[in-house]
User: What shape does this take?
Amino acid sequence: MAVIRPDKATDWLTGALSEQPRRGLRPLNTNSKRKYLSRSLRLSNNSISDLVGLHYTLGYFLAEPSQLGWLDLSFNKITCIDPVLCELHELRVLYLHGNCIWNLSDVDTLGDLQHLHTLTLHGNAIETSKGYRNHVISAMPQLRKMDFSAVTHEERVLANVWRHCTDQGRNTKESRQ
Assistant: This one.
């Protein structure tokens, strides 16, 4: 796994590009162009507020950025779930906990990520929204883990009922107007 940790850089992209990944327990393998042969990237704890330049960063560091399967963006200052994440079609694990995401409907965009099976969002403002867990599970029926807890069959059924009731209530309000 490539680990990038610019020390509280104001421009996270510039900071990330100027840093060398820390060495972990295993050596980081590179190709002939000195790009990392990794399917995972940790960008946690970097004061990132938006994902402008994410594709460039992935291409700069990774030999096969389109194959990214694990992305850690936890403990940053991200306020919304950027649609750029939906372009990472092979993404299986996404950590967004400990950010500043406040709009629960932003989660709906992640439903397009068919392989995404693990998602963390706790520690964001959306966690206090009514129906938080039901909303996320109903938006992403393929999830197996959410906020480091398994998604059970019962939760899936409950989330679908909740979504149906919520949608029905919304349609009734709209028809009255």
In short: The longest strand covers residues 40-42. The helical segments are 12-18, 54-61, 132-139, 153-176. The beta strands are 2-3, 40-42, 70-72, 93-95, 118-120, 145-146, 149-150. Residues 3-10 have pLDDT under 50 and may be disordered.
